[in-house]
Amino acid sequence: MLILLIPSLPVKADTQIVYWHRLQDNPAAFQILQLALDKTAKKFGTYALIPSESMEQERAELELQNGRLDIANFAPDTAREALLEPVRIPVTQGLLGYRVCLIKTGSQHLFDPVQTLSGWRENNLTIGQETGWPDTEILEANQLKVVKVPKYPLLFTMLDQGRFDCFSRSISEVAEELNAHPELELEKNLLLVYRLPTFFFVKKTDKTLAERLHHGLQSAYKDGSISALIKGYYRNQFETMGIAQRTVLYLENPLLTRPTREALEHFQYWLEIKEFQP
Q1: Which of 26, 59, 131, 184 lies at a 20 to 30 A Cα distance from 35?
Q2: Would 160 be classed as within a structural domain?
């Protein structure tokens, strides 16, 4: 019997999805995207993920509107939700809204007296923020003093110079930044918490992809896949930072749109910091 050996060819995907390249900077979010698509492959078909060329966030939003980009992850705001279609399920359990402070070395004593948000205000602590970040307005809405800086890299330099007291960072990003800036320290006692999710956004008319992502994320949360993934990525970091032992200062986020507020009220899978006891 003659057997012909035919080289295997890649199977063509039913859908090609071009994603904002910055998703690769957040491995947990990227794997959650893959989870959502995998869990809906039976209904919506196979897929291939293709990274976009390098681009800043403003251009990524324009490319989504024009249909040259299929998906990106952003924090929601009124303008963005009007122009694009948000999938209103937090991608990484709301990690962006769990914040610790990078501080100037030797300045821990400024934070030691603080036990409440009013105590923060009474001690006149200042927070450095890039001007256009959405949480800049959140901090100001909570009567916290903010020093606005035009460019992200300058924040590290200005913090080291003592131009402000705290550079507020998500607990999912601070470890890498601290490694890159060993001249700074991590504040030891406090955790700022406010509702600042990241959503997947698609083109306003791409209802099929929006529906697919919604179903996929719901499924991945319900079966515990996303929670397990987050714990796998961050447990060691969070335990080292003592997240579960910190004093929590809760802030309001008055900038959320009504549809987003309503969606978040029904979200049951916010990060539970008590799960990260060392």
Answers
A1: 59
A2: yes
